[in-house]
Amino acid sequence: MTFRTVVNTGFCTDTVSHQDHLLTLGSCFSDNIGIKLQNALFSVDVNPFGVLFNPVSIANSVEILLKKDLFTEKQLFRNGSLWSSFSHSTLFSATTPEQALLNINSRLNISIANLSDTNYLLVTFGTAWVYEDTEHHNHVVSNCHKLPANRFNRRRLSVGEIVDLWSKLIDKLKVEMPALKIIFTVSPVRHWKDGAQENNLSKSTLLLAVDNLTKNFQQVHYFPAYEIQMDELRDYRFYSSDMLHPSDVAVDYIWEKFANTFFSADTCLIKNKAEQLTKALNHRPLHAGTAEYDNFLRQIETQKETLFQIYPFLKNRI
């Protein structure tokens, strides 16, 4: 007997390979998958704006990349000691506008340069709730940066709003990047501060919107990360200490399901070898400088050279 419900993800005919270039945008779950892709030596640009939660902010970020717009000081604001951008997470904030712009634009330049080669966009929606800045024409912000709550209008997007916004964006992407394929996921991280009912309504809104998009566009796919966490991994041992975020074991499991869905057998073979190498490279010794550790380093170098000889396209990814 099987004492759990298994989510069948199937196998996508649009397979992802190490020859492809990927961009991840969205919630912290896109960070998790992005890091997994990096450790498997895929060519991937992970969350160039930092963690983004709602569909509007993610769509706005894609528009910024398409327009190749760099930021100016007019787009920053000061709150306490920090200068920040409403389009970015606090990772890009700094104590001077010059440093904040350097953080933002140096990262943006990398993503703009990579965009023309990108053929897979991985989007993770986290919540349907948005915060509109009442001081700037109700513009939806990506991050409130701890500004007073009365500055923002908080509301939940409708399914129709999300579908309309992303349908227009996908139509634009089809013209500018005709080879691009999009993989949507809904983050399994629960937004519990909204309460149980509001969290479920938010996730349901996202799921219905993505379902519409996958039915309307051939190049759009859905990966059920949310369903895997909620059903296959429903036990709290698969959550971190806050009981809201997936544990490392859960992320590993969902990553393997993702690989089995979108990677060919050959790509999975390269992935496994690449992960073994990056794990060895990230090893921190207890006793550096010993003969045993020197031998370990030589073995890693041999392992690296062998991998690059067989798969030379991996060379510049470590």
What is the fold-level CATH name, i.e. the topology? Rossmann fold
The major beta sheet can be summarized as: 5 strands, parallel
Strand order of the largest sheet: 2-1-5-9-10
Number of distinct helices? 9
Unreliable residue runs: none
Total individual domains: 1
State the helical fraction. Answer: 40-55%
Instruction: Please write the CATH class name.
Output: Alpha Beta
What's the oligomerization state? single chain
User: How would you state the average pLDDT, rounded?
Assistant: 94
Tell me, what's the shape? globular
Q: From the coordinates shown, what is the CATH architecture?
A: 3-Layer(aba) Sandwich
Secondary structure: number of strands: 10
Which structural class is indicated by helix and strand composition?
alpha/beta
Q: What features would you describe in this structure?
A:
The structure is a single chain. The protein contains 9 helices and 10 strands. With 318 residues, it is of the alpha/beta class. The protein has a single domain, classed as Rossmann fold (3-Layer(aba) Sandwich). The strands form 3 sheets. It has a 5-stranded parallel sheet, sandwiched between helices. It has a 3-stranded antiparallel sheet with strand order 7-6-8, with no helix packed on it. Strands 3-4 form a two-stranded antiparallel ribbon. β1, α1 and β2 form a beta-alpha-beta unit. α2 packs parallel to α4 and α4 runs parallel beside α5. The longest helix has 21 residues. The protein is globular, with a radius of gyration of 21 Å. The model has no long low-confidence stretch (mean pLDDT 94).
